[in-house]
Each structure stands twice: as C-alpha cells, then as structure tokens.
C-alpha cells in the first residue's frame, strides 16, 4: 500500500504533470539544459505561493516534487557504495576526535584530501564546527563561519563541498528563504547524482526534506516518508534507517504506537553504527515503555530499558565531546556564547535521563514487590555526577529547597560556597582533557574527605563545585573554606608522570535566617555566592571572599 500524493492535493493536473516532467528532465538531461529545468521547477513550485505565504498549494507542489524524485532515484541501481555515501555515515556521528569510533573510517575516506593538501585537516575541523553550530542552534555563529569558509571550499573536493552546502541550506531554512534553499539543494542533488551515485543523492534529498520545518506538520509529510520507506525497506542501508527513524519520530496522531513498534523492530536489525546514540536511545526507550504494558514481554521491556540507558550514557559522552571540541576550536568569547546552547542540550538530556529513570522504576514497580535496592541504585545513578562522585545539578534542583526550608524554619544558618579551579582551561590545554578529568575526580575525593556528611556537595558546572554548609557562621565558614583552599594549593596532582599544581578561588554567602524571614529563590542565594567568587577572582585568585545577609 502507498499514499496517492497527487490525490491528496487539489493541484491542477497540468501543474502536477509539469512538475513530474521537470523532475525527470533535471536528472536525465545533460548539463546545458539542467539550469533551465531547475529554474522552471523553482518557478512552477513558487507560483503556488500566495503573497509569499506557505499554503496548501505550495505544500502539495513540494510533495509532488519530492515523491517523484524519490521514486525516480530509488528505482536506480544501488549496487555501488561511493566514498561520499561512506562519508555520510560519518557525519551522523560528529565530532570526530582522535579517540572516536569513526576516526579510522574518517581517515580512510578523507585520506586523499589530506594528502593533497595538509590544510584540509584544518578545513575539516572548521566544517565540523559549522555542523555542530547548526546542530546546537547557534545560528549566528553558523552563518558567520559559513561566510568565512566560502572561499576555502573547493567544489572538486566533493565530501567537503556537500557537507558545506548541507549546512548552508540549514541556514537558508532557518531564515525562511525557501527559494534560495531550493536552488542550492537542487544544484547539489544534481552534482551528487553525477559524481556520488543514487544512494548519496537520496541521502541529500531526504536530508533536505527532514530539515523543512514548515513541511513537517503538513498531511503530505508522512505520506512521502511512507512511500519511500516501502520502496527501499529491503535495502537495510543508511537511507532506509534514516527514513524509518523519521517515521518513528512522528507524533502518535500520525503514527500509532503499534506502528512505531514495527519501525523499532526494523531499525534494531541494523548495525548500531548506522544510527547515532541519540537515535538509538529514543528507539529503545520507546520500546521499553511500550512493552511494559504487556506482562508476558516484561523481560523484553527490561532489556530495552537497559539498552536505552547504555545509549543515553553515550549521548552524555557525545555532548561532552561537543563541549571539548568547541573549547578547542572556538575563540574564548565564541566558546562562552556557544556553551549556552550546549547547556540547553544538557538540560534536555537531563530531562530525558529523569524520564528514563522514572519510566524504568514504574515498570519495575508493576512487576516486583521488593524493589528497594534496585530503586536506590537507579536513584543514585540519576543524582550523582559520574566523574567527581558528587551530587549533580538534578539533585540540587530537586532536593535542596526542601532542605533549606527546614533550615529556615529552625533558624539554622546556611553557607553557600562556590569553588572554581583557577585557569582550568590552561591545565586542559597543557596536559590534556584526561588530566583535567583526573583533577576533577581527585578534587571530588578531597571535598568528601574535608566536609561533613551533613554538608551538601554538588558538581555545579564544568570545573565548579557548590558546597552548602549548615549551622555555621560567616567566620567559621571562611576558616573552613580557607583551610580547603590551602590544602588544594599545597597538593601536587600526579598524572602519568606529570606533576600538576592548581589553585582554587572561593566565593561564599552566609544566610542567617532570622525569625519570620521569607525564604528566597535558590538561585538568589547562589548568585550571591557567585558575586563573592567574582570578588575572589578580581582579588587575584587563590583566595576566599565571603558575604553575609
């Protein structure tokens, strides 16, 4: 069964016939007339726009175009496997670092580029940065970098050229420039058709479709995906996986849970390197939830939840890699601005972690009477920072305010302290990020050994820790914090025969909580400690500054 795209629309038959004919003309005609055919197609589709607004006629004409192009391309011989198509598997897993799983494959595909001109190594780094800017939503930086790279892109280096053009199309889409995007993508598809083969061309065309936010909510979107998926379902390749996953992502009104489960069963047959960690997490998380509703499939549900947890961990690793990549390849100001977008991704992933843990626990509760130990393990995993061993931001957000409310009710003074490693970027740059991770891990141990069990220690940011001390006055708090500062200053961190010395700056704010005090927002207390930390930095670092109410 397939959808009748033309029957869904109210386009005139002559318009449909014209668009279908132009698709064949574009792919089958020689170079001399292609530009004319492309211009005619853009003009024909654009004619359906009324006053520049997206309407059903425009959506229908786009749907007819995509459907005809998909059917034409997928009818070709897919026996080849070009370097460009291999490259497309790589860009689903960016950034490629020297320890990445795809590092060797990347070197194999791009070796001719790097041997031809060593500067291409740097160019690939910049293209990866452009791709990551687009992915995290840092549109201003993506547009600026695309402008800088324009003169460096050699159309004869097809992998780089296509990667650049795909990102440029994203920029056009973000600015609502449909005509420019259509012209760029048609030219690109034809170029790939001639030099990269039908598989690579289908990737380019589907990638274009997936990025059209204005098209996804239309009644034609699922119909297009479904028709193409049924056409290529038996191929078990990158294109099949991507189209199947896009169908899986559609909301429940378009694709019912039972139908999504069928896509899941298709997609998990593929090698896990075809889809990325985020995609695999989503698939297994859905399956865990879906199967939990069937008692006889309880063990399958648990297996899917475990798989989703594994890939969720990989998602965290990838976000950390993105952060490291930005830190290495961005100017400091650009990195600081870019981290706002990365932090938003971290928050999204944190929410997914909470959702996964909650669903997992609920599933266990339905099937076991005694789950206290399992519940504790799941809770600890979700509330603990794996690197430092201390509590994470999720614990702080969910648990700290009730504890503060109790302290305020009993007039127990509280001290909020922020510890920040001085010049931590320099440590990473000089000794490597693994050395920086080692220092954070050791600092976490020192914090546990120094402070009381009743105090709360949270890894607050990359190299920042928040310490909440209870029942302590400003004088005692400063004494304790200064003692810890000296302990860090005197310690020599030994990592792989390297001796590393660091210092820390500390800012603290003490709240006395007099009678009838109105409890503030948690952020306000932390902001006061942050102001004190700034004072320590301004005073030359390696010092403690303290403020009180």
Description:
Helix 9 runs antiparallel to helix 10. Strands 2-3-1-6-7 form a five-stranded mixed β-sheet, sandwiched between helices. It is elongated, with a radius of gyration of 28 Å. The model has no long low-confidence stretch (mean pLDDT 87). The protein folds into three domains: 153 residues; 87 residues; 156 residues, Reverse transcriptase/Diguanylate cyclase domain (Alpha-Beta Plaits). It contains 24 helices and seven strands. It starts with a helix and ends with a strand. It is α+β, with helices and mostly antiparallel strands.
Features:
alpha+beta; 3 domains; 549 residues
The helicity comes to: 55-70%
General form: elongated
- Which blocks of ≥5 consecutive residues have pLDDT under 50? none
Mean pLDDT: 87
Per DSSP E runs of 2 or more residues, the count of β-strands stands at 7
The CATH superfamily of the largest domain turns out to be: Reverse transcriptase/Diguanylate cyclase domain
What gap, in angstroms, lies between the N and C termini? 71 Å
Structural class: alpha+beta
Examine the secondary-structure arrangement and name the CATH architecture of the largest domain.
2-Layer Sandwich
CATH first level of the largest domain: Alpha Beta
- Largest β sheet strand count, sense and barrel closure: 5 strands, mixed
Identify the strand order in the major beta sheet.
2-3-1-6-7
Strand content: 5-15%
> What Rg is obtained from the alpha carbons, in whole angstroms?
28 Å
CATH third-tier fold name of the largest domain? Alpha-Beta Plaits
Number of helices: 24
